[in-house]
Amino acid sequence: MTSDDGDLTVAVDDRLPPTALPFETALTTLWQVVRQLPIGEYQYRAMHCLLGKGSTLEMERLLDDRGAVDLPLDLTGGGTAIVRVWRAGQGRAVRS
Prior knowledge:
Number of strands: 4
Shape: globular
Radius of gyration: 12 Å
Structural class: alpha+beta
Distance between the termini: 32 Å
Oligomer: single chain
Number of helices: 3
């Protein structure tokens, strides 16, 4: 499924600055960054289902329910990375 809901802004702490792109391109770009993170298999599979399968339906549902999505990922070896997604133009401030 594809979306005609406009652009998304996506970001990953210290790895991808806030970037506004068309919905599908934004999710693809986000997946390319997330799949390089040192995360465990469970998180990898969950993020693949959300970002890497070519469907926007689940992300659309999350955004419709919440308006924005912050997904904290535990990095192997310690630390976290926050994956952030919101509809472009919402003026959301990104924490660093």
